[in-house]
Structures are given as structure tokens and as C-alpha cells.
Amino acid sequence: MKTEVLPYTPLMKTLWPQRTLARDLLLILAGSLFVALTAQIALPLPFTPVPITGQTLGVLLVGAALGSRLGFLALLAYLLEGAMGLPVFAGGTGGIAKILGPTGGFLLAFPLAAGLVGLLVERFGLDRSFFGTLLAMLLGNALLYLVGLPWLAAWLMGAGKFGGVSALLAMGLFPFIPGDLVKAVLAALLLPTAWRFLGRK
User: Fold this and answer.
1) Distance (Å, whole) CA 10 – CA 15
2) CA-based, 20 to 30 A from 28: which of 1, 47, 111, 164?
């Protein structure tokens, strides 16, 4: 079966163009470890079980840098590492209970968000410009909330703590919008700058 050639090549595949199994495995492992590092930047909030972390920035950057397939697999590897008990989740935590907990929906959405951002890069080259990268990051974040918020609502219902949609948004969405915007702008500065540097090379 013929492999589809996508119009744009992600950053890491441009830096390391020769495709081998060893290259793909190393990029997947590196992507999962990068997200684990960003997850250690965590600020717990007293009114919600969802912390503010650098994790989402790591997820979306990995998707953009590795592309849809390797980005998805890197975040799948990350979830497997966490499920095995490695301290890769926010604040150095791990274990299957974390995936089944209130933030589990966000965690399970990580591979999907990385895959989406990677696909946007491969199809449209959005990471080559500031506003394109910003759009890709915001769409990736939106997907995280589309999965994470219903999961959080179900968990709260199961725990007898669900206080309605307004309370849910106050716990799982509104406090995180400013940070998400800052992380999206940071990514929108980093990725096009990396491409300009490569162009000068």
C-alpha cells in the first residue's frame, strides 16, 4: 500500500530526515520524557483537583515537532509510563489511579491533542508562522477540554460533588484560560523561530 506523502514535514523529522525504527523509537521516548519534564511544573489550586501545569505546552509542542503519528505514539508512551507507576504525571505522580481520577480525561486526551496538532502541521504547515502556530495550539487545547471536562463532570457526579455546569467550568476551564493563552503564545514564538533558524542554516 502506498504511503501518503503529506505537504509539510514536522520540525524533528526535518532535523532527522532518515526514517528508521531506531529514530522513531528515540523520538517517541524523547517526546514522552519532555512531557514528563513539563508536568513537573505544577501549581495545585485549592478549589479544584485540576492543577495548573506546563504539561499541556509539552503535549502540543511534541505533537507539532514530531507530527501526528509519532506525536500520538509519544503521548501514548507517556500514559503507559504513568500507568506503570513512573512519576511522570503532574507533580511527580504516577499510577493507574491517576488516570482514573478527576484529571483522567485530560490525560487520555493527550495523544489525541498531540495527533491533532501534528496533523495540522503536516497538512497546513501551521507551525511556520506565529498565528498559524497559535491557532494549532488553541485547537489542541480545545480538544483537551472537550474530553477532559465531561470526564471531570462524571467523576464529580460519582463522588457526589457535581455542582452544575457553572461550577464545573469554574473548576476545569476558566482558571486555566490565561495560562493556556500564555503557553500558546510561547509556542507561537518558539516554533516559527526554530524554522527561521533552520532556514538560515
Assistant:
1) 9
2) 1
